[in-house]
Amino acid sequence: MKEIRLKRKEAVALTYKPGLIDAPTIVAKGKGKVAENILAKAEENNIPIQEDASLVELLGQLDINQSIPEELYQAVAEVFAFVYKLDKEKGNY
């Protein structure tokens, strides 16, 4: 018999304010119910969500209010590019 394990949902929320902070910063993170709440709040506020399990795993190792390290800039830049593209398509920019 094959065992199937369901992985708990995990989420990390970032903020970036160019000119105010040097790098994107972790503002929320969690697993299970906390992750579901983070995702629900994002949806309620029309904040785009991108699923990237490997990036969430790396970002999940950081503390809340911690800026992302330089080695993750490229991966996070791709997330922000995705968000800006969605916002532009929706006419938000």
From TrEMBL:
Q: Which UniProt keywords apply?
A: Cell projection, Cilium, Flagellum
Superkingdom of the organism of origin: Bacteria
Answer yes or no on keyword NADP: no
Any one GO CC term of the record: plasma membrane
Instruction: Return the InterPro entries for the record.
Output: T3SS_substrate_exporter, T3SS_substrate_exporter_C
GO biological process terms, alphabetically, are: protein secretion
Q: Which PANTHER family match?
A: FLAGELLAR BIOSYNTHETIC PROTEIN FLHB
Indicate what this protein is called per its UniProt record: Flagellar biosynthesis protein
Species this protein is from: Psychrobacillus insolitus
